[in-house]
Amino acid sequence: MDGPNYLFPNDNSPGRKVIGHAANQSIRPYNTNQEYLYAMREDLADWFKGLYAVEINVNNFFEILETGTLLCQHANNITTCADYMIKHNVCRWTGFQGKYVRASSFFARDNIANFINWCRHEIEISESVMFETNDLVLRHNEKNVILCLLEVARRGSKFGVPAPVLVQMEEDIDKEIELEKEAKKNNRKPPNPPQQKVTCDFKSLDEMVQYILGMCTCPSQFPMVKVADGKYKVGDSESLIFMRILRQHVMVRVGGGWDTLEHYLNKHDPCRC
Asked: Which ranges carry the Calponin-homology (CH) domain (predicted)?
C-alpha cells in the first residue's frame, strides 16, 4: 500500500496526491442536525420495498409505517427465520391487524404497541434507541424510530433476514477490523480487506470526500488523511474512521452507527462548528 494520501483542496505540492473534485456528483446538502437521518431513512425505505414489495420511499416512509402493519409483518418474518428462538420459546410471533387499518386508529396504535413490545421484550432492543407509539404516530421522535429499525435489522441479519445496505457495510467493516486485530495479535501482516458485500467504488468515494472538503475555503483546512481505501484519519486524532458511499451520500461509521460526512464535519471541524 502506498503512503497516506492527504486530501487537501487546491494543494498541488510534491508528495501529495490530490484527488480531483467530483463536480458532477449530486451530493445532498445537510443544513441541520437532523437531516443526516434522511440517508438512513432512504436506505430503510428501499430495504422494506425490496423485502415486502410495498410502495414505500423516503418521502412516504412514516405514513406507510404508521399503521403498524408492516412493522409487525417484519417482526414475524424475523421470528420465522429465528429457528433457534422458536424451538427454545425465546421469541414469539406478534399478533396484528392486517388490511384496511387506518393511520392513528386504535388498531394502528395497537399494532405499533405490539411491535414495540416485541422489540423490547423478545429481542431486547436497547432502551436508548427504543421509541413509543406517539413517536411514530405524532412524529414526536422520528430519530429513534429510524435508529430502532436499524437495530432490528441488525438482529434480523443474524438470523438470515436480508439487511439494509448500511448494516451490510457495518458487517464488512467489523470483519475487516477483526482480521486486522487477529493479524496484529499474531504479529502477522494484515491481510487484504475482505471483498465487500456491497460494492463500493473507492475512487468515487475519494472524489466525493474531496468535494465535501472543498466546500470550506479557509486558508487553514481541517486535515483529513487517507490511509487505505475507505479508511481515514481526521483532525489531530490518531483513530481511524471508515467511510462508505450510500447512494449519493458519504457515510462515516461512528461508534455503533452512522453519520454523513458533512454532519460529521459540522461537529468536528472548528471552522464549520
From this structure: 38-157
